[in-house]
Amino acid sequence: MSMNLEKIKSDLEAAVPGCSVRIVLNGSPSEQHSLVLGREHALEVARFLRDDAELRLDFCSNVTGVDWLDKEISEKVKVKQVVDGVEQEVEEVRKTRTPGYLEAVYHLYSMEKKHGPLVVRMHTEDRADGIKLPSLTPVWRSAEFQEREIFDLYGIVFEGHPDLRRILMWDEFEDHPMRKDYVEPNDYEYEPTPHDAVLEKSKQARTLEQ
Amino acid sequence: MDPELKLELRRQGIFTTTLEELYNWGRKSSVWPLTFGLACCAIEMIATTMARYDLARFGAEVFRPSPRQADLMIVAGTVTKKMAPQVVRLYNQMPEPKYVIAMGACAISGGPFKQGYNVLKGIDRYIPVDVHIPGCPPRPEALMDAFITLQKKIDAQPLTGADRPRHLNADEPSEFVVPQYGAHDLVPAKNPKLWNIITKPTSKECMAGVDESGKD
What we know:
The complex is a heterodimer.
Chain A: H1 5-15, E1 21-24, E2 34-37, H2 42-51, E3 59-68, E4 71-83, E5 86-98, E6 101-110, E7 115-123, E8 132-134, H3 143-154, E9 157-159, H4 196-209
Parallel strand pairs in A: 2-7, 8-9
Antiparallel strand pairs in A: 1-2, 3-6, 4-5, 6-7
Chain B: H1 3-11, H2 19-28, H3 41-49, E1 72-76, H4 84-93, E2 99-103, H5 104-109, E3 131-133, H6 140-155, E4 180-181, E5 186-187, H7 203-215
Helix pairs in contact in B: 2-6, 3-6
């Protein structure tokens, strides 16, 4: 059952003053549109989503992380320019650069009202130092291990999490292996049928051998 | 003793044997595996012990819950780098003579996860493996075949001489280095005494044989 995001958004803005909620449309046939919450009021917003009599989103089924790299979008823009005294329309390529960020995605359902999912996202400030997000574990206990997993693999620091430490990798591990710029140690060994990234590694190893 | 004569004597009701044969017969007929599974291969291992395949027919009816009472470690499943030190530690805790079957693609080479950041590229980097079984997962018949292969291996072991098994040679190690967790990988990444990287012959070496045969 799809949720009426416009209504949820207006309800949220009325209930939590000053909160930022943005609707992100999903163009695919599933039409799973989502809400992007501002970091500052996310905890209050989450409490409202859980406790509101109409929504009652009492079950957080899934939490996951996404790593968005810096993006450079180049688009062609028609600009009027004066060339040799005559006004002409000239195409110009404009590049816009959006900085990368880390994202946490929560899938919320209501057991009581039998509706959902509501997809809620939060963005970190950037991928380097501003990697803090409020933890939603105080609202949905089921998020605890999954937020730990996101911390382990993506490095998002969840503030207010009761027990934030690595869950899959060992404690001595450095870095966050699911980040797109993670460089794993080169421990390539002979592969009979290498392809893709492994083919590159096998070529490197062969040149080193010679 | 001449095997023909031995058979003839048996027909006449006289049973002859050697200490070595008796010893090996006893060992191969009661190999007790460790109750130990890591991933989906363990399900096939469990199926092998159940009524349909019945591994008990070969003398492996008791899976021991303690490494102190086990003779065989069936490494059934993906060995993650986080789990590898514990696997080696369990192996070290088993008394000699002890054997290892590496079951499935993951345990022998890392399998589909070989190029990942978190999976060991085969348990034979840290402990000596007697039988490798490929498959994802191997069927119970494959595990039984590996088990019978191991029994044949035990049966053929001489008790004295240079080829005697490890547990009868005081100089051979019975414990192996437990790897430590490092910043990105296990330290050491392999036990060099057990594992040397097999490099593919270079194209020059491959061509050398071809040239010689061409001259003939």
